[in-house]
Amino acid sequence: MNVFFPLSLILGLLSLQACTNHTTKQQQDRPDTKNVSDSLTISTVEDTTSSIYPKADPSKGQIFLVRSYRIWEKEDPTAVLNKDWYDIYEENGQYYLAKADYVIKDGFDDCAQVPSKSVESRRNSLLFLKFSGLKPGLIEHVKINQSEIWPKESVQYTFKNQKVNLKALGDIKSTEVQTDENGHEKVFHEVANYRLNYSATNGNKEKTLFQVDQYDHVFMKTLFVGDIDRDGALDFIFSNPRNYEEEALLLLLSNHGNPLIFDAEEQFDC
Fold it and tell me: Signal peptide: which range, if any (predicted)?
């Protein structure tokens, strides 16, 4: 009996080790559930962001910021301007389209220590633009319901039996109360992972107009809503700088149901 007991114990231990090794091998062969889940999540995000409107080819048109430009290595951004450019401007609460009327003045940028050229419009201009088929005159426009569209907010516009919905997505990182130049207090958010989606009742599916990973002490604003190309549908102009040392504008042109996106930006960091 003394011999039998140790022998039984040894056989039992060997059997237990075999089961343990088999279980370990099954665990090693099994796929990592967390990794598979993460992979599916990433795929879903990519599928969603693939619906963003692409920027239009410059051959289809351009927009131009009416401002001062730094001249780097003799590259002159103002050289593109000529008699083909139009000006969208405001006068007494109305908006008009006319051939651009401006002067260009030479200067020097003290911050960057390089020459500069300033484009100064003779009107209250929003931007200059160059597209085929533009017609001068009064532009139909609608009142801007809400200039800043924060994450989880939606703004709707109605124009000639067309309804356009702008829906914002993103993360609010922090919130503070700021005072503007008129002494009025307003709530401001620091926003990341921002997307502005666009949909209209003319059959277009919801798509992303633009996305920004992080706004640095600035945020987007709606500057104009109206019919620039006179196709009976709304066009939009947005201010969309990523940081406080940048000016950036984005134009959504409805283009007879085939929307085009144009943008222009200029840094003035010091």
Answer: 1-18
Local structure of residue 30 (DSSP, 8 states)? S
* The Cα angle at residue 93 between residues 217 and 163, in degrees rounded to 5: 75
pTM (global) more than 0.85: no
Amino acid found at 150: W
Chain-wide mean pLDDT for the chain? Answer: 84
Structural domain boundaries in the chain = 52-267
Query: How sure is the predictor about 202, in pLDDT bands with cuts at 50, 70 and 90?
Result: low
DSSP string for residues in 65-94: --SEEE-BTTB-GGGG--TT-EEEEEETTE
Which residue in the block uniquely carries the two structure tokens 């010091």?
A: 270
Q: Which two three-digit tokens encode residue 12? A: 């039992």
> Taking Cα atoms as reference points, which of 156, 155, 168, 255 lies closest to residue 219?
168
Alpha-carbon gap, residue 17 to 11, rounded angstroms: 10
User: What is the 8-class DSSP label of residue 24?
Assistant: H
CB atoms within 10 A of CB 50: 9
CA gyration radius, the chain: 29
Name residue, tokens 């100064």.
120
What is the 3-state composition of the chain as percent helix, strand, coil, each rounded to the nearest 5? 20, 45, 35
Beta-carbon contacts of 112 under 8 Å, excluding residues fewer than 6 positions away, are 70, 270
What does the block give as tokens for 52? Answer: 């963003």
